[in-house]
Amino acid sequence: MKLFPAYKVLAYVVGTLLVALTIGMICKYLFPEGGSIQSFGETLTPIVAVGHGYVYMAYVVAAFILSMRAGWTYTFLGLMLLAGLVPGLIFVVERRVEAKVRAEAPALVG
């Protein structure tokens, strides 16, 4: 599998898991103790958190390699990595990354 398609899949999975984690945390901490919604959040949160952590590690590696091969600055790499930690931001940054790859390093698109 080419690097950019792998990065793109990882970005979407990380983003989706982070949104699910945020929803789980809201359910866990903002709803009344002992309720079904709070219980759902309590069950969902640790499962999604572990999944996000593992997938995020793979995302970091893919983002680093893509950034180095494309010759981007460490600042842009930092933005890519930060996007995986802020709910929803990764979807915006992934679009920027795709545009930047297509413009500056089309050989990486695959």
From TrEMBL:
Keywords: Cell membrane, Membrane, Transmembrane, Transmembrane helix. Pfam families: DUF3817 (PF12823). InterPro entries: DUF3817_TM (IPR023845). It is a multi-pass membrane protein. Residues 6-97 form the DUF3817 domain. It is found in: Cell membrane. GO terms for cellular component: plasma membrane. The chain crosses the membrane at residues 6-31, 43-66, 72-93. It comes from the Bacteria. Its main location: membrane. This is DUF3817 domain-containing protein. It comes from Nocardioides jejuensis. The lineage of its organism: Bacteria, Bacillati, Actinomycetota, Actinomycetes, Propionibacteriales.
